[in-house]
Amino acid sequence: MRVERQHRMHPSGHLMVGGILILIGFLFLLDTLGIANTGRVVSTGWPLILIWIGASRLRRADSNESRIGGGIWIFVGLMFLISRLGFLPFNVWALFWPVMLMSFGLYLVVRSRYSMTAPSETANRINAMAFMGAVERKLSSQSFEGGEVTAMMGGVKLDFRDAAIAGDQAVIEVFVWAGGVEIFIPHGWVLDSRITPVMAGLEDSSRPAPEAAKKLVIRGLLLMGGIEVKN
Fold first, then answer.
1. % of the chain residues with pLDDT over 90
2. What is residue 47's three-state secondary structure?
3. How far is CA 182 from CA 98, 111, 137, 140, 229, in A?
4. What pLDDT, on a 0 to 100 scale, did the predictor assign at position 17?
5. pTM for this prediction
6. C-alpha–C-alpha distance, residues 92 and 109, integer Å
7. What is the pLDDT of residue 189?
8. What are the strands, taking DSSP E only, across the chain?
């Protein structure tokens, strides 16, 4: 028997996309009728979309990573909105990247301090970090517990096809910024994705066996990058 997996958009995602389409259509209608200048409205108010996305993520947040991700969206949106309204005497883009770098650094510090009790790499845990480079790990532990993966403008490749999970599940904390992570898992594992993507995505190409009972949980923050899981 083959396990069929369906990837569906969350109902609130449909609501958000539908609301944006209605708003855009309404603005073009006003422009056609000569009631409002759509170009000016869009150029000034587009940061509201970022704020809306952040508020939606905060409302559904169930972890610190999700809350931080939603907060980043709101912060960026507010900065651009205030700038577009003319209340800032400086160029937001000049401050955007330094502030984002500081925010990402703070996130890494908080995650290392509070989310993991044993961040160091052992025979049963993995701790991989790639910064403007590539890292490759192959783990064959028969009591795999999880670990921590960070990819900043770099790539990480993990091969767990010869490994086995100790209990019912193993948890990998990830932080990806403008990078990529490629993970190979055995057919006996099922992926449970709990990441918060921001202009990023996770692709699950794995094909778990019908009797697959072990679960690999991937959670964390994914910014302008990608994660691919395959067999």
1. 15
2. helix
3. 28, 21, 10, 17, 6
4. 64
5. 0.57
6. 25
7. 93
8. 125-131, 134-138, 146-152, 155-159, 169-177, 180-184, 189-198, 201-204, 214-223, 226-230
